[in-house]
Each structure stands twice: as C-alpha cells, then as structure tokens.
Write a structure and sequence with these properties.
107 residues; alpha+beta; 3-stranded antiparallel beta sheet; two-stranded parallel ribbon; 5 strands
Length: 107
C-alpha cells in the first residue's frame, strides 16, 4: 500500500450495511447505527446502494475530521469497490443514492 494512504484501520473508520436490518459507521470512539425501517422504500435498494449509503453518511458526518487525508476504504462488496475505484456509477442504476430528497437520518 502506498505510504500516502491512511488505511481505515489506522484511522479507525469502518462502515457496513445489512440488506434488511440497517447500517452503521465507526470513527474512533464515535459511531452511528440505524435501522432501515424508517427509510422510505429501503427494501427496494440494492445492497451496493446500502453499502455506499453507509460510507457517504460517514463522510457527511465526519468529513471535517478526515479533511486532507487519503483514506483507504475496504468495502466487502465488489460493486462498491468498483464504484469507488472508478469514482463514478451509472445514474440509472443508482439514482436513489444521489437523488434530491435522499433520506439522511440525524444520528
């Protein structure tokens, strides 16, 4: 691994999502964990969207403390790895993730 990357285990940033239960993120001693129940139409989301959602939410919450750091994410979903490495995705496949009004809970 190149030296300029800070690995997620050094930064202690971890995220994950379950297909039916919920999603979570941990940064050091701070964390969030929420169920999918209150998220409208969450049962229609692909698992990749749910995994990306937990990463995006973690960056939204803790972005300031991660500024000017290059973080190496280690997602457990091949689609998420592809999307992160490509830094793009097909809008029609993932429009629920980027559309206005996307549900972001207040942890």
């Amino acid at each position: 691994m190149p030296e300029f990357f800070t690995s997620s285990d050094q930064t202690m940033l971890f995220t994950d999502a379950s297909g039916s239960i919920g999603f979570a993120g941990i940064l050091g001693k701070e964390w969030f964990a929420l169920r999918w129940d209150p998220v409208p139409d969450s049962d229609q989301f692909q698992i990749a969207i749910k995994e990306l959602f937990s990463i995006v939410l973690a960056l939204e919450i803790w972005g300031k403390s991660l500024e000017n750091k290059e973080i190496l994410f280690l997602p457990d979903n091949e689609v998420v790895v592809y999307v992160i490495n490509k830094q793009s995705f097909k809008k029609n496949s993932y429009e629920t993730c980027s559309s206005p009004g996307t549900y972001i809970p207040n942890p």
